[in-house]
Design goal:
0% strand, 3 domains, mainly alpha, 58% helix
Length: 192
């Protein structure tokens, strides 16, 4: 708890880093330097971090939309639980001196829960234009971030991947945005 797998991750060298300094010719564990950008760029961004902004935005928008509900509202409580889990993990992974990429798998449950909860909340409020605009904004942001993360060369990825991500994201964003005027034009903003 206090050494290698505990507080030692926040400043002390790991055993592999100590051995690398010896004449054993071992390579140290490579990791991006500590900081908030570590999880949303480079290899960690490709692994798990690509959904972090969408999960955080979806959680914040859902909490904002539920701000007038009672404190014991189950949806609000779920977003608070999963959002706190995610924020704590992001803080710990950002401050740790060295992390392995497989550690970031712990980010998947809260991100998935926040996105799933937000999709359910958006579906329940689908007759409100603000819900559709929020969905369009999150989809557009996710598409832009995913396209930015795809390396332009040297990875063996096909060249058509980035344009495909942009095209699919643009269609999804336009679909969500186009539904806003259709719902807003009806009396009371409700379908049919």
């Amino acid at each position: 708890m206090f050494v290698y797998n505990g507080f030692g991750r926040f400043g002390e060298q790991t055993p592999l880093q100590l051995l690398a300094g010896q004449s054993l010719d071992l390579k140290p564990l490579t990791s991006a330097p500590p900081g908030w950008k570590r999880l949303v760029s480079a290899s960690l961004g490709h692994d798990t971090g690509w959904l972090l902004p969408a999960g955080l935005a979806a959680g914040a928008i859902t909490l904002l939309g539920r701000r007038k509900t009672p404190r014991l509202d189950p949806l609000r409580a779920a977003v608070a639980l999963w959002g706190t889990w995610l924020v704590v993990l992001v803080a710990v992974f950002s401050a740790a001196t060295t992390i392995n990429s497989y550690y970031t798998a712990a980010l998947s449950p809260p991100v998935a829960a926040l996105l799933g909860t937000a999709v359910g909340a958006a579906w329940a409020a689908r007759d409100r234009p603000v819900a559709r605009v929020a969905v369009a904004v999150v989809v557009a942001g996710s598409m832009a971030y995913a396209a930015w993360l795809i390396p332009s060369s040297g990875t063996g990825l096909p060249g058509w991947l980035r344009p495909l991500v942009i095209a699919v994201g643009a269609v999804a964003t336009l679909g969500a945005a186009a539904a806003v005027p259709a719902f807003a034009a009806r009396p009371g903003g409700r379908p049919g």
